[in-house]
Amino acid sequence: MRTSRLRTVRTVLWTGWAALAAGAVLCVVGWYGVSGERFAERQLPYLASCTVPGAALIVSGAVLLAQGRGSIAAARVEELYDLLVAAEPTDADETGQASVAPLAVSGEQLMVPGGTLWHRADCPLVAGKAEAVPVDSKLVASGELGPCPICEPAEETD
Length: 158
Hints:
The structure is a single chain. The protein has three helices and four strands, in the order ααβββαβ. The chain is α+β, with helices and mostly antiparallel strands and 158 residues long. It has a four-stranded mixed β-sheet with strand order 3-1-2-4, with no helix packed on it.
C-alpha cells in the first residue's frame, strides 16, 4: 500500500513541476510576442493564448506541489503510526500490564564526552561508538550526568 501511495504522490509532484515549467515557458513566449507588437490589438492574442494559460499552469503546478508534499507528510505519519502500533508488546501478565524486557543488560557503563547521560555498554545510543568512554563516577555523583531513559542503567558506578 505504501509503495502505491508514494508512486501516486511522486506522479503528482512530477506533474506539478511539469506544469510549472510549461507555465513559465508560455509566459516567456507570451511576453516575447507582446514585446514585439506596438499596438494593443495585436498584443491581445499573445496574452490570451500564452500568458493567461501560462499563469494558470504556474498556479496549478504550485497547488499540485503543495498537495504532493502534504501527502508525503501524511504517508510518513501513517508509517510512523504503523511502526508504533507494531512495536507494542504482545505478552501481558495477569494484571493486563505488558511485561517489557530491558533494552540493555550490560553491567559496563559508558558515556560520550560532552554528553549529559550515562548508558549501559549495549545501549543503542552508545553501542558501536568509538568515542564512548567509561563513566567517571565523580560526574555521576556530582549530578552532571543523568541515567539514560532508554537503557536505565543502575545507579551505582564502579
